[in-house]
Specification:
The chain is of the alpha/beta class and about 110 residues long. The chain has a domain at about 1-25 and about 45-90. The chain has 3 helices and 3 strands, in the order H-E-H-E-E-H. Helix 2 (about 55-70) links the parallel strand 1 (about 45-50) and strand 2 (about 75-80). It is elongated and about 70 Å long. The N and C termini lie far apart (about 45 Å).
Length: about 110
């Protein structure tokens, strides 16, 4: 009886991982990826442009930590920086229903 139960369990696990139906994506996937030649080098110092009073505070702090600690570069955050290396902007426009379907958001 234990062997039959074990075989059924193994069969269920194997078939669960072999499914090719990818209609529902829990993690949103990119619509398109375009690979080009070249590379990106972080400048020294790194300037991030972000509104200080927005909901981006957590993201800015996270990005600042993730870029400054491993590189040793100074990462500054400015509210307006025309020559910023990284810009974080909240898009307040509502997405159309067709765009939500493409991106996976409801």
């Amino acid at each position: 009886m234990k062997k039959v139960a074990s075989l059924l369990m193994v069969f269920n696990v194997v078939t669960a991982f072999c499914q090719q139906n990818r209609e529902i994506a829990i993690i949103p996937e990119l619509v398109q990826v375009t690979k080009t030649s070249g590379y990106f080098t972080l400048p020294h110092p790194i300037v991030i442009e972000a509104d200080e009073k927005s909901h981006l505070t957590y993201a800015v702090n996270f990005l600042q930590q993730r870029l400054s600690i491993p590189t040793g570069y100074n990462v500054s955050v400015k509210e307006t920086a025309p020559a910023a290396d990284i810009r974080l902007v909240i898009n307040n426009n509502k997405m159309s229903s067709s765009a939500r379907k493409v991106t996976g958001y409801l």
